[in-house]
Amino acid sequence: MDINNRKNTDYLKIAKEAVFVESSKLSCLDQVVQGYDFNQGIDWQKLMESYSNIGFQATHLGVSIKEINAMLNERLKPVNVDPNVDEFFKYPPARRRMALTLFLGIFRYILEHNLVDCVVTSAGGVEEDLIKCICPTYLGSFKMSGHWLRSNGVNRAGNLLIPNENYCLFEEWLMPILDVCLVEQKQKGIRWTPSKLIHRLGKEINDKSSICYWAWRNNIPIFCPALTDGSLGDMLYFHSMKNQPEGLIIDIVEVKSFKSGVIILGGGCVKHHINNANLMRNGSDYTVYINTGQEFDGSDSGAEPDEAVSWGKVKIDAKAVKVNSDATLVFPLIVAKTFARIVEERKML
User: Fold this and answer.
1) Tens digit of pLDDT for each residue in 40-67?
2) Lowest mean per-residue pLDDT among 21-25, 144-148, 286-290
3) Least confident of 109-118, 137-146, 264-273
4) Active-site residues: which are they?
5) What span, in angstroms and rounded, lies between the C-alpha atoms of 349 and 345?
6) What is the pLDDT of residue 101?
7) Distances (CA, A) of 220 to 110, 194, 258
8) CA angle, 298 as apex, 310 and 284 as ends, to 5°?
9) Topology classification of domain 50-131+164-347
10) When comparing pLDDT for 307 and 1, which is higher?
11) Which Gene3D superfamilies match (predicted)?
């Protein structure tokens, strides 16, 4: 054998050894990747159940559905309330073991059917819910000219169009309510919090299409860590300036729960607020993130659940999952297999 043939043989051996590495029998090799077979017809329940075995973000979607159902099942368990502890949530007999937190209050349906114990949202989540009861928001395009919209008094949020008049009408509705709140603060000594104020606004809006309305009806507190960050904050400022030196005072509150499950759609201030609150109880028991944030820039919004574990914001033994997706795409599917499932089961009782 000449030297060239010997070299070729050596290269071939190296290549074969690299490619044909013997596989070990590992415990992690137990879940087979398998998609839905449409030859069996369209069965929406089985289609959604198949997501867990598809791989990539589809599997994370399937895991998130299991986690949320685990939260809901935990919520139905009986709980013994310590009579010496002042309750924030009024636990009915045999239910509400945990404080299930929902970011953005995305569906009125969930609150209408009393499926969560509290909501954490941004100021925009509150004000846009109320504004849409007064005047509509319109569908536009992501590519519309900001200059043209500005010159016509229209604000764009993504592909949603909000006429400036909406905020003017919102101010006309809100200011008299704030006047009454200020009177109650002075005469009755009420110390307003974001959740108390939102509770009052839900009562005053008196519109069944509103998330805040159903939160008020079902006594579900809505927490807003940055209430002043938005149009609502502007109006609170204007009201305060008008009523100096004794303007409306809004304080911060805390809450403690037996079990904690969190569903966080998006990131930012609210995501950190929810996680940081859970740090005070050594972490959340159930955790689902749904966002498109990436962790390479060190942002809190893009952080994976395991980073929160390192801080004690998510429990070490929690089966936390992050779905890397736009929440508007996947959350309705998750609701169909979790919250809506509970509602349909109740109807059959």
Assistant:
1) 999 999 999 999 999 999 999 999 999 9
2) 21-25
3) 264-273
4) 313
5) 7
6) 46
7) 11, 13, 17
8) 35
9) Deoxyhypusine Synthase (3.40.910)
10) 307
11) Deoxyhypusine synthase
The predicted pLDDT at position 87 comes to 52
Alpha carbon distance 41, 271 (integer Å) = 40
The answer to whether the CB of 64 falls within 8 A of the CB of 72 is no
Please tell me the distance from the alpha carbon of residue 183 to that of residue 52, in angstroms, as a whole number.
55
| Residue that wins the pLDDT comparison between 247 and 222 | 222
Per domain, the residue ranges of the chain are 50-131+164-347
Residues 6+ positions from 208 with CB-CB distance below 8 Å: 112, 214
Joined tokens for residue 64: 């998130």
CA atoms within a 13 Å half-sphere pointing along the CA-CB vector of 288: 28
Nearest-angstrom CA–CA distance, 335 and 329? 11
Q: What percent of the chain has pLDDT over 70?
A: 88
Compute the C-alpha angle 341/345/349, nearest 5°. 170
Mean pLDDT (the chain, rounded): 85
- Cα 213 from Cα 200, distance rounded (Å): 9
Residues comprising the chain, all counted: 349
For β-strands 98-103 and 118-120, DSSP reports them as: parallel
- The angle formed by the CA atoms of residues 214, 106 and 199, to the nearest 5 degrees, is 35
